[in-house]
Amino acid sequence: MREMRAFYIAAASLTFAALAGCAIKPQVVSSSPRTVVIKAGDLFVQESQDLADQECRKHERYARLIEKPNPNSDQFVYDCVR
């Protein structure tokens, strides 16, 4: 009984840790007049778009998504276009 309780506590802890990693706020990794890279989980599509638009607006451009996160990456890549 005690071992099962410890197992459930460990499983719950791992689940919460994994979910916390997915909840990281989007942040700019790199920005240039032509490209913006945003680090964010794949659930933050709109938030990353808004952040990329803010960066591109500095150069009188708007952001166009060219790459979404995949199993090997947690980054959105945007082109800044006119």
- Large-scale geometry: rod-shaped
> How do the helices and strands follow one another from N- to C-terminus?
HEEHEE
| Low-confidence parts | none
Strand order in the largest sheet: 1-2-4-3
Distance between the termini: 64 Å
Strand percentage lies at 25-35%
Structural class: alpha+beta
Mean pLDDT: 86
Textual characterization of the structure:
The protein has 82 residues and is an alpha+beta fold. The chain has a domain at 25-81. The protein has two helices and four strands, in the order αββαββ. Strands 1-2-4-3 form a four-stranded antiparallel sheet, with helices on one face. β3 (62-67) and β4 form a beta hairpin. The radius of gyration is 18 Å and the shape is rod-shaped. It starts with a helix and ends with a strand. The mean pLDDT is 86.
